[in-house]
Structure formats: structure tokens, C-alpha cells
Write a structure and sequence with these properties.
Layout lengths: L1 H22 L3 H30 L7 H76 L1 H21 L4
Length: 165
Amino acid sequence: MACINAALWLLVTPSILHVVRRYTGEASRRATLQIVVILAVTTLYGIVQSRIAAHLGIRPAVPPVAGVFYYLDVNLAAAVLAALILELVAQQRALAARDGWLLSLDARLSEARERFLILQLQPHFLFNALYMVVSLAGDAPREAARMLWNLRTLLVATTGQSRMP
């Protein structure tokens, strides 16, 4: 009977806690309301258990209050255990969501670093290429012109492919 009782509580408690969480905002109010609701459900469940046990002939019929107290320890233990399991699962989900958020933040940071490095390298490359063109202009003007044309083509291609303005 205790195993069936615990299994029923493990099935019922998530629904109870879900309803309480859905209709309360503050964490402190939510915890208080969860305790009150679990105590109320435990009381009603004890009365129902007592009636069912009397009807099945497992126990003699007793007043409702006696039925509540007879099953109170098992009912509360099962309800608290189910609430703890649900809280652990909720915390695990929150940690997984936070890990995902941190990973996306890390990816964005890496992308920003890459863009910053590209922006740093582009002026360096441009200045070096222009210096080479200037040094060729006096000795080999055709080579300098060809190099300027290639530099223009390269700049058009890289700015067209770039995701940045």
C-alpha cells in the first residue's frame, strides 16, 4: 500500500506544483503557497485513503481526522520527495539553459574578436600594398598599374563578401 501511495504522490505532486507555480509570481509566496496546498491535498488524500482502505476491508472505518493522521507521515514524505525531485529537475533545466546562453555568448565574443582582428589587419594590408605600388611606380609603372588594378579587384571582392559595412 505504501508503494502505491508513493507512486500516486509522485504522479499527483507535479501537477499540484505546476498549478501553484503558474498562478504565483514571487518565489517566497510560491513556496508558502506550495506548502499550504500540499498540506491541504495531503489532508484530503488521507481522508480518501482512509475511506478506500475501510471500503476494501484493509482497515476498519475511522473518523476522517484519524485517517488523515494515520497516513500523514507517508503522504508528506512522498509529497516532499516529489517536490524535491521536481525542484532538482527545474534547477537542472535552468543550468542547461544558462549553459546554452553562455555558449552562444562565447560564440558571439569569438565572432566579435575575429571581426576586430580583420578590421585591424585590413588597414595594415592596404598600407603595405600601397607602399609596394609607390615603390614600383618609379621603376616599373606597368607593374604598378597592374598591382593597383589587382588591389582594387581584391578590395571589391572582400568588401562585397564582408558582413560588415
